[in-house]
Specification:
With 255 residues, this protein is mainly alpha-helical. The chain contains 13 helices and no strands. The longest helix has 36 residues. It starts with a helix and ends with a helix.
C-alpha cells in the first residue's frame, strides 16, 4: 500500500512538472505573438525559434510564416517549408494547407500538384476552410487529381458554409453556370451576396452582373451600380468598365 502511494505521488509530480513546462511555453508563445503583432519581428523570430526547436507546433507554424514573408529573418521559402513540414507532421491543419500551397506554386519545393492536393485533402478533412476551398479548386481544374466538378462543389460548400468568401463566390459561379450542380440563379445570387458582403471584389462584380441582367434578383440598375462601384473601389478594372457602361445606359434612359 505504501508503495502505491509513493508511485501516485511520483506521477503527480510528473504531471505538475509537465503542466509547468506547458505554462512556460504558453507564456513564451504569447510573448512571441505579442512581439509579432506589434512589429517586433526579430524578437518574435527568436522566441518562435526557441519554442519550435522544443517541438511547439504553433511556433513551428508561425516560424514558417515568418520565413515565407521575410519578417524578422531573411526570406527563405526553403526554411518556410522546413517549419511547415515540422508542424504538419504534428497534425497542424494550417501548416498542412500552407505546405500544400508551397507545393502548388513551387516555392521552397519543386512544384507538385499531386502532393499539393494530398496535403489540401489532409487539411480539409480536419475542417480547415482555406484547404477545403483549394481542394475544390484542384478538383475543378484537375490539378493533381482527376477533374470532378461534383467533388469540387462538395468542398466549396464545406468552405462556404464556414464563411470562406472565395469558396462562396466559386460556389455561386458553379450555380450560375450549372457546373457540377443544376443551374440555379437564385442560389448563385445568394452565394455571390455572401461573399460580396465580405468585400470579395470578384463576388461584388458578379452580384452587380446579377442585378444588371436580372438573374436571381429583380433587375435593378441602382443595385448593379452599387456593387460595381464596390468592386471597382477594390481594384477590379472590369467592374469599372461595367460601371461606365451602366452609367451610360442610365443616362440614356433618363433622356
Amino acid at each position: 500500500m505504501l508503495i502505491c502511494i509513493k508511485k501516485l505521488y511520483f506521477v503527480s509530480l510528473l504531471v505538475l512538472g509537465i503542466a509547468s513546462n506547458a505554462d512556460a511555453s504558453e507564456g513564451l508563445l504569447s510573448e512571441a505573438n505579442f512581439a509579432h503583432q506589434n512589429g517586433g519581428y526579430h524578437k518574435a523570430v527568436q522566441l518562435y525559434t526557441k519554442l519550435a526547436n522544443d517541438g511547439n507546433v504553433m511556433a513551428q507554424y508561425n516560424l514558417g510564416i515568418m520565413y515565407f514573408l521575410g519578417k524578422g529573418v531573411k526570406q527563405s521559402y526553403v526554411d518556410s517549408v522546413f517549419w511547415y513540414r515540422k508542424a504538419a507532421k504534428q497534425g497542424s491543419a494550417e501548416a498542412m494547407h500552407n505546405l500544400g500551397h508551397a507545393y502548388r506554386v513551387g516555392k521552397g519545393v519543386e512544384r507538385n500538384y499531386v502532393v499539393a492536393a494530398y496535403l489540401f485533402r489532409k487539411s480539409a478533412i480536419k475542417g480547415h476552410a482555406p484547404a477545403q476551398y483549394n481542394l475544390g479548386l484542384h478538383y475543378a481544374k484537375g490539378l493533381g487529381l482527376d477533374q470532378d466538378y461534383e467533388w469540387s462543389i462538395y468542398w466549396y460548400k464545406k468552405a462556404a458554409e464556414q464563411g470562406y468568401d472565395k469558396a462562396q463566390n466559386n460556389l455561386g459561379s458553379a450555380y450560375d453556370n450549372g457546373r457540377g450542380v443544376e443551374q440555379d440563379h437564385n442560389k448563385a445570387t445568394y452565394w455571390y451576396r455572401k461573399a460580396a458582403e465580405q468585400d470579395n471584389s470578384v463576388a461584388q462584380f458578379n452580384l452587380g452582373n446579377q442585378y444588371r441582367v436580372g438573374e436571381g434578383v429583380v433587375q435593378d440598375y441602382v443595385q448593379a451600380k452599387y456593387w460595381y462601384q464596390r468592386a471597382a473601389e477594390n481594384g477590379d478594372s472590369e467592374a469599372q468598365e461595367k460601371l461606365n457602361e451602366l452609367e451610360a445606359i442610365i443616362k440614356n434612359d433618363k433622356n
